[in-house]
UniProtKB/TrEMBL annotation:
PROSITE patterns: IDH_IMDH. The keyword Amino-acid biosynthesis applies. InterPro entries: IsoCit/isopropylmalate_DH_CS, IsoPropMal-DH-like_dom, Isopropylmalate_DH. One of its GO terms (molecular function) is 3-isopropylmalate dehydrogenase activity. The lineage of its organism: Bacteria, Pseudomonadati, Bacteroidota, Saprospiria, Saprospirales. Belongs to the isocitrate and isopropylmalate dehydrogenases family. LeuB type 1 subfamily. This is 3-isopropylmalate dehydrogenase. Residues 5-347 form the Isopropylmalate dehydrogenase-like domain.
Length: 351
């Protein structure tokens, strides 16, 4: 009977609410398939700052290092967002966690749900048939480069730096993922302007020689933002830098139906972390309104990573079944509107 130790970093805002539903569903999976999932909670983000002064306390990091997998909710609080002079910020906890654990790749699948097709009267025809994977570089680029102020605080800078090693490992992953899917890889960059993007292109062209079976194309990020809306079904795998991937994946969530639907896995050299792509939605916290599906599907990605594939697809099947019944939280504009907890109950019951 496999036993897995899972660190639970549910964080701030709606983070704890959506992670509670993911655990509800995982508990049913454990019962049904005869596994034991042992959960240990640890603080991260604003709650961790409140408790310890540090958004990523040493205890949390060492727990993560000895766990089999990490389930992450979301971090962030308006009191930091509204205070540009705050020296310690919840987001630093997440960025440091990714860096410390070497989680250089963030895989964000985006698919349109036939089950949701009738729910949204605004849903254009072109949103059908979307099935793509955004492979986002996660521990480099402008979020991690040198930043600061000069000229008495009147000039601010953030630096986008990428090394060959950082680019090679993520682009290689892009080729592998494309080969396992429909065999098409798009590098999204800004190589007409940015030197770091030109290095991405150079290295990707080199790697293409060892990956000739994968169809490769290049697209500037501004055009990619437009193409995602105009003709999203053209994309199979997108590989891109940290910030471009962050922005394009939130935009792509509209194709799926809601930001509250999109899961992700953050992987690299050590333990994997599984996290919805959305943030802590502070205005929605404590109201039983948040869509838990992104967190539940992140748990499914975790099971895939732990090689519990049948279990992972059982979760996906349960989500599709409940969506197909027209049930969902308000963001999906469903025929039967339910709260976070009832949505989780229904998915658990569908298992
Ligand atoms: N991975 C993380 O922990 C992330 C943290 N953040 C942080 O979260 C805080 C809020 O940031 P925002 O820009 O407002 O982004 P957000 O993702 O928290 O919310 C943006 C909008 O998306 C919708 N939304 C998000 N999650 C949802 C869910 N589960 N169900 C239904 N609707 C959902 C809501 O309409 C919300 O107004 C900030 O402090 C930010 O730094 C933002 C993005 C990612
Ligand atoms: C701290 C931010 C980089 C979080 C975020 O927006 C994300 O990872 O999607
Ligand atoms: Mg984001």
């Amino acid at each position: 009977m496999p036993n897995f130790n899972i660190a639970v970093l549910d964080g701030d805002g709606i983070g704890p609410e959506v992670i509670a539903e993911a655990i509800k569903v995982l508990d049913v999976v454990a019962d049904k398939f005869g596994h034991t999932f042992a959960y240990t909670k640890a603080p991260v983000g604003a709650v961790a700052i409140d408790q310890t002064g540090d958004p990523l306390p040493e205890y949390t990091l060492s727990l993560c290092k000895k766990s089999d997998a990490l389930l992450f909710g979301a971090i962030g609080h308006p009191r930091f967002d509204n205070d540009p002079s705050a020296k310690v910020r919840p987001e630093q906890g997440l960025l440091r966690l990714r860096k410390e654990l070497g989680l250089f790749a963030n895989l964000r699948p985006v698919a349109s749900y036939d089950e949701l097709a009738d729910l949204s009267p605004l849903r254009p025809e072109r949103m059908k048939g979307v099935d793509m994977l955004i492979v986002r570089e996660l521990t480099g680029g402008i979020y991690f480069g040198e930043k600061g102020r000069k000229d008495n605080g009147n000039t601010a800078f953030d630096t986008c730096t990428y090394t060959r090693m950082e680019i090679e490992r993520i682009v290689k992953m892009g080729f592998v993922e494309a080969r396992a899917r429909r065999g098409k890889l798009t590098l999204v960059d800004k190589a007409n302007v940015m030197e770091s993007s030109r290095l991405w292109r150079e290295i990707t062209r080199e790697l293409a020689q060892e990956n000739e079976d994968v169809e490769l194309n290049f697209m500037f990020v501004d055009n990619a933002a437009m193409q995602l809306i105009l003709n999203p079904a053209q994309f199979d795998v997108i590989v891109t830098s940290n910030m471009f991937g962050d922005i394009l994946s939130d935009a792509s969530s509209v194709l799926a139906g809601s930001l509250g639907l999109l899961p992700s896995s953050s992987i690299g050299s050590t333990v994997g972390m599984f996290e919805p792509i959305h943030g802590s939605w502070p205005e929605g916290a404590g109201q039983d309104r948040a869509n838990p599906v992104a967190a539940i599907l992140s748990a499914a990605m975790m099971l895939d990573h732990l090689e519990l594939r049948e279990e992972a697809s059982a979760i996906r099947g349960a989500v599709n079944k409940v969506l197909g019944q027209g049930v969902g939280t308000e963001d999906l504009r469903p025929t039967t509107k339910v709260g976070t907890r009832e949505f989780g109950d229904r998915i658990a019951a569908a298992l």
